[in-house]
Amino acid sequence: MIKVDAMGENCPIPVIKTKKAIQGLSGPDTIEVLVDNEIAVQNVTKLGTSSGAEVNSEKLGDNEFRVTIVMEGAPAAADSAKACGPDARGNAVAVISSDRMGSGNDELGKVLMKGFIFAVTQLDELPRQMLFYNGGASLTAEGSDSLEDLKSLEAQGVEILTCGTCLDYYGLKEKLAVGGVTNMYSIVEAMAGAGKIIKP
């Protein structure tokens, strides 16, 4: 029996923790997931079912639920992004070229950029990709205040890509903490093929 404690966690974290537990199985086993809200119960159940498991859930008390996932064999491919609801990505591409938003006060600009990235997580239709270049490269690296929001977006299927030349220039290549590395041709190609571009 593998136990996953996802109490106090909002989607997609319970789903991500459960998916890692499923992927770590080497044979038949049971995974017990503890969550504190019914939305998490539904999302974890959806993930378990899509992995080919038998899933049961029960309410243990106020704001305490247990989801039991019985894996009979190797897990089927499961999409953690879809487990948190329908695919909400559109054909928009968000392009971020600085670690601050607007001009004037730099500290205010950084606060606004953090708010901008959080606001993207709240969109009904998420962008297909988020592209980071020049000063924006620091937002995907260690120490960024926006990492949690970007990791949440990535878990929901948004492709996070940062310019490799920019990471090299700022000495951040070894500190990339979310998403992958891209190049200028791919950035141009993505922008040219976008239904719309979101730019702070």
Distinctive features:
200 residues, alpha/beta, Translation Initiation Factor IF3, Hypothetical Protein Ychn, Chain: A, 2 domains, 5-stranded parallel beta sheet, 4-stranded mixed beta sheet, 24% strand, elongated
> What is the number of domains?
2
The low-confidence runs, each spanning 5 or more residues with pLDDT under 50, are none
Principal-axis shape equals: elongated
Q: Please give the order of strands in the largest beta sheet.
A: 8-7-6-5-9
Range of helix content: 25-40%
In CATH, the homologous superfamily of the largest domain goes by the name DsrEFH-like
| Distance linking N and C termini | 47 Å
What fraction of the residues are assigned to beta strands by DSSP? 15-25%
CATH A-level architecture of the largest domain: 3-Layer(aba) Sandwich
Number of helices in the DSSP assignment: 7
Q: Total strand count, please?
A: 9
Largest sheet: 5 strands, parallel
CATH fold field value of the largest domain: Hypothetical Protein Ychn, Chain: A
List the helices and strands and how they pair.
Blueprint: E1 2-5, H1 13-23, E2 29-35, H2 38-50, E3 54-61, E4 64-71, H3 80-83, E5 92-96, H4 106-121, E6 129-132, H5 147-155, E7 159-163, H6 164-169, E8 180-182, H7 184-192, E9 196-198
Parallel strand pairs: 1-2, 5-6, 5-9, 6-7, 7-8
Antiparallel strand pairs: 2-4, 3-4
What does this entry look like structurally?
- There is one protein chain.
- The longest helix has 16 residues.
- The strands form two sheets. The chain has a five-stranded parallel sheet with strand order 8-7-6-5-9. A four-stranded mixed sheet has the order 1-2-4-3, covered by helices on one side.
- It folds into two domains: 77 residues, 2-Layer Sandwich (Translation Initiation Factor IF3), CATH 3.30.110.40; 107 residues, Hypothetical Protein Ychn, Chain: A, CATH 3.40.1260.
- The model has no long low-confidence stretch (mean pLDDT 88).
- It is 34% helix and 24% strand.
- The chain is α/β, with parallel strands linked by helices and 200 residues long.
